[in-house]
Amino acid sequence: MRLAYWSTVLGLGWILLAGCDGGQREDVLVVYSAGPRPVAEDIVAAFSRETEADVELFAATTGQVMARLEAERYRPRADVVIFASRVAAEALKQDQRLLRYPEPSWLSETEADWHDPEHYYFATSAALVGMAFRESVYDEDADWGRFLSPDPGLRMTMPSPSRSGAAGDLVVSLVLDRGDAIWPELLDARGAGLDFAAANSQAISTTLVGAFDGILGAVDYLIFSQIADGAPLVVHYPPSGSALVERPIAILASTPNEELSRRFVDYYFCREAQERVAAAHLLPARPDVAVSDIRGSRELPELLERDIEAALKQQTRILRRFQLEVERAEIVR
Amino acid sequence: MIAALRRGLGRRLPLLLCAALLALATGYPVLLLFLQSIFPDILGGSLAGAFDAYRRIIETPELGAMIGTSLGWAGAVTLVSWVFGIPCGYLLARTNLPGKLWARMSLLIPIMTPPYILALSYVLVMQQGGFGDVLLPIPNGLRAWFFSFWGVTVVMALASFGYVALAVEATLSTLPRRLEDAATVLGASWRARVRHVLLPLTVPAILNSGLLVFLEALSNFGVPAVLGTRSNLPLLPAEIFYLVTSWPLDLALATSLSSLLCLLALMALYGKRCLAQWMAGGHIRPGTAALQPLSRRWIWLGWGWIGGLFLFSSVLPYCAMVLTSLAESWGGDGFPPLTLKHYVALFEPGSRSLWALATSLGLSVAAATLCVVIGGYIAYVSVRSSGPLRHVLDGLATLPRVIPKIVVAVGLILAWNAPWIPLNIYNTVWMLLLAYVVIYITDALNYANSTVRGMSPNLEHAATVLGAGRYTVFTRIVLPGLRPALMAAWLTTFIVCMRELVASVLLLPPGVDVTATYIFNQFEQGDIAAAMAMATVTIVISTIVLVGFQFRRRP
Questions:
Q1: ipTM above 0.90, yes or no
Q2: Interface contact flag, B510 A62, Cβ < 8 Å
């Protein structure tokens, strides 16, 4: 009886230990990626086919990826991260949690302006954050000012900046661009019915069912892919400027697999992977890879002023203030 | 001397083992949470910035207002649940209302429904372009009212008034009629009888069920996350969730808000105890209550009340849920054509949804079994021993019942992700199993506790005298005796684990889903048909298991 007891205990213990593979292992590459899951899944699958390396992928929003990195601060697990926000990558760089990749072979073949000048992170692609409207209510001259007023005339939604990295970058850009005067305007917009969706996809789906007329802070490639499926939407870049949002890839300083991580980064910039990125209607980092038909051209519209240093310094304050004062504001309607 | 010490230790070993287990599973995470809320950088080995997060709570008026809103909302939910539930309890216990069995069933269904599914269904009904708009246009005033403080309150109350009704019924039906008769003989009117006799005698039951509802509302995550965010109603659990999972992340603020939430829950518990002591109306001998005959009009009114509540707490949300899962597409004009394609997609081999379902089933079975075995053993050890350690054990075991689940979950993240933990349990499915067991072991303990108390220790003594070891005594004598209670505990734990949302959403490793997180995520992503198909399947599975057990118990 005693033997049976101890063997049960040992058996359970063994199962428990065998099931725990949460640590960093040298033969597995752990990738955390924000943004379109299918693209990340395809590229990871192609990479592991090519190199026969095991890759574990966690695909989520930029916010969730950052939260996970923060929770794992003292027990790091990821090797490579991909964000949908340059500010997020810059934050990790300033925290000295990224590993420098000095001279990748493909550097000259990609958009140099999009990368970190010190080569801690590299933009795999970029997207523009502007507006989107349902075709029936589209107004070609729509600008930010109209929707930051008490009477926009249209019912708009916006992905929550704490969930969507792109919307977060846009809010920070707008606040830096317009200064503190924007806060009462944002509250006006909120009072006029501006709604906050959980993430980009929710903003899009609620607009498609007709609950809203358009999306502020719409990420263009997501709208393009809806248009490709026949959705009656239009992407609009407001005259006073849109935000360019790069999607940087970086290697974490804590990685035990520097070699494999670099190979993964290299792979992300090869022609095949970049074509996969372009097929998702993103702007590929390689100018020699054609953009999707629906996007049409590489030409960039007017961009909002941007200062990465200032954005990083103020973004926590701006986003928290936005969350508390605008998003969660009690509006009497 | 040493032999005596060893003997003493040997005798105390089970108790010590249980206490150590509970301290590690519950005490350690909660303690670490409190410490982290005070010293934000304690996991990095520094005591810098003490009380920084609390200072920020005091300095940010929005946070103070949010705490107030949370308390006010939980109080409002309790009040509305009382209004809904007390008449139901009275009708069931004290009147000759026909069809009581059905009425009781109608109360059980909303109790069985996870509040977040109720909330999601109501969003489907009430949102612009939603169900209500397709069938009949919903006036904007009603919509605005629904997506506000009171609308969210009513939804939560619809999910919880059943507890109040059943508790009040249980108390009222054992109150003997003598006191009321005495009052009637002395010339008291119906109103005076209710005020001076019935109400004081039922106050403990009302307060107890009210506390249950209050604590559930204060710590519920699903309804605030689904409806609160859509109604500009910032509530603590949802805010804590966003602080832990989204950017900019603020663990210090999350842990300090969690600690405050925990403190509020404990204060509510203590406050209720004082209030109950002050108001309790002495002891009464239980007897059978006489029934008040109802006139035809009152029967109609009574059934109208119960039926109306059933309509809004079950029929309407379930219809919305099932119809959405069957609808071909969403948002068109008129009634959409029906299809089974969402269910086909749900059960497609290798799909995320099927994995989520399998993970949930596996985890729930494992967690329920572990809870029952460990809980049964701890209850046995605790009842059969004495001394101060036993009180520590009891206290530790009831801790997760009082402490909000989200707080336990945040504590578990800190505890098992700390740099000094040698096991890599964080980021694995085992973490969730641990969380389920920690959170739900109290149910198994309570079931087992009352049964063990009723069992005579004579059989165990006899077995020991005949040379049986501790293990044999437990498995051959105690466990069979506990079986009915443990079966009931297993069933309850299985069902609550199948629908558990907040611990799952916080603790699941990358790329793994359980049914609740699948439903929640698909809804957030806008794929409501898939979410509702999964919700329907989960509820059907729970119901099948429940009914299966009922039939096995009565062969």
A1: no
A2: no
